[in-house]
Write a structure and sequence with these properties.
The chain is of the alpha/beta class. It contains 12 helices and 8 strands.
Length: 283
């Protein structure tokens, strides 16, 4: 069962590097800020599933408030999306994200969009995270469930930081991040929760320390509909090619924050295309 991969790309390279996408993840903050990015997705009509992301990862890292449902619906209409990621709140009480989703579902459904829920919790509140996740699995009004590179490690006690705190990812946390999604899915399977209509309902938001996380999750591919990451393009643009090491990146995650307005030319086009193929072959 294949996974629809969404390669996230700086604006200049959208046409070139999103051709092989199985579906598209559209970032709300770029729809709001970048007319060229907005117009690309507004005019894109390739028949593939479009997910209007709420940019929670970017908002959290920048210390900015989350988008409300009315703004997300407006953006989704503009870009002719099929699905809207509802507001979620990393490092806050798990019930806040559930409450926000409960309030947003009726307006999103009434506007004709699928709903996408991303469970979150306070740092180390694994039980709370799982309560939100199981709530979503049992809720027929939720079409897709996101497993976040923020939410999963945070539930296990990895204290993710904001960009403005001047911190980089602590090296000792790398393994914790890399296996966190696997452990969440393994726990769901162990307790029988994947029986609650989980088939092809999950989306993996972002990639941790390398593309071979896709292989790590292989036994759960039947439950994963889609996955997104900027890693293939962003690494490739900087001449970094995925490799055969256990994570697929010998030096770990490329830490430089993605600059969606960059123009780095096409000198490393070969690396980008090889990285895209590396990921797509594993999906």
């Amino acid at each position: 069962m294949s996974i629809d991969f969404c390669h996230i790309t700086p604006t200049k390279y959208l046409k070139e590097y999103t051709k092989s996408n199985g579906s598209h993840l559209i970032l709300a903050h770029l729809v709001e800020q970048d007319p060229q990015y907005r117009d690309f997705y507004a005019n894109l009509n390739d028949g593939k599933y479009k997910i209007m992301d709420n940019s929670a990862f970017e908002m959290f890292k920048q210390g900015r408030p989350m988008y409300d449902s009315s703004k997300l619906i407006q953006m989704a209409r503009l870009c002719r999306a099929h699905c809207i990621v509802m507001s979620d709140y990393p490092k806050e009480d798990w019930g806040k994200t559930v409450k926000a989703a409960t309030e947003m579902i009726p307006s999103i459904k009434e506007a004709g969009f699928d709903t996408f829920f991303v469970p979150q919790s306070e740092v180390g509140d694994f039980d709370g995270y799982m309560q939100g996740l199981v709530w979503a699995l049992k809720n027929p009004a939720i079409n897709r469930i996101g497993l976040s590179i923020l939410g999963c490690p945070i539930a296990y006690g990895v204290n993710e930081s904001k960009h403005e705190m001047g911190q980089t990812r602590h090296s000792t946390y790398s393994l914790q991040r890399y296996v966190s999604r696997y452990m969440i899915l393994n726990d769901l399977e162990k307790h029988g929760f994947l029986m609650f209509g989980a088939n092809k309902r999950f989306h993996c938001l972002g990639m941790t320390d390398g593309p071979r996380e896709i292989e790590l999750l292989k036994k759960f591919h039947q439950y994963i509909a889609s996955w997104d990451s900027s890693a293939a393009v962003w690494c490739g643009l900087h001449g970094i090619k995925f490799d055969g090491t256990p994570t697929g990146l010998v030096n770990g995650k490329f830490e430089k924050e993605v600059d969606f307005s960059c123009d780095l030319g096409y000198d490393n086009n070969w690396a980008v295309l090889q990285n895209i193929k590396y990921i797509n072959d594993r999906c």
